[in-house]
Every structure is written in structure tokens, then in C-alpha cells.
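ok new one. same drill as before - C-alpha cells go in, u give me an amino acid for every spot. 69 of them this time. try not to just spam alanines like last time pls lmao
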């Protein structure tokens, strides 16, 4: 659903574009400061992991590695 978020990160295009840069959800080149990378990298049993259980396919290990890259 557009406008909803889990783990403090919303992924609709309008919001994503506003969340790129220093101090925001997506910090290019710095995964330790990127909230998006944090929530897709959480263990499966963590409540803030995205996507939530039953709401889509989690990223594969390779996809998480590509995002980190």
C-alpha cells in the first residue's frame, strides 16, 4: 500500500526520491548509515525486516549483496 512503511522506510517512488542522501534512509556508498540497507539485511525473525512476512518475497543473499555494492 502506497504511503505505508515498515521499519521507518517507505518504498513508494515519491518518498524514495526524497530519501536519498546524507542523513536520509538511503545513503549511497555507506550501508552502515542507510536505513534501507539495515532493514533488508535484518534476520528473518526480526520484526522490522522488510518486506514483512507474508507481504512479498525477501531479497535473496545475492540481491542484498548487490544493494550493498
Amino acid at each position: 500500500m502506497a504511503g505505508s512503511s515498515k521499519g521507518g522506510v517507505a518504498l513508494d517512488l515519491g518518498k524514495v526520491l526524497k530519501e536519498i542522501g546524507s542523513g536520509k534512509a538511503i545513503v549511497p556508498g555507506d550501508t552502515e548509515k542507510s536505513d534501507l540497507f539495515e532493514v533488508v539485511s535484518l534476520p528473518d525473525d526480526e520484526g522490522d525486516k522488510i518486506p514483512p512476512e507474508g507481504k512479498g518475497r525477501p531479497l535473496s543473499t545475492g540481491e542484498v549483496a548487490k544493494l550493498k555494492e
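The mean pLDDT is 79. and btw The chain has three helices and no strands.
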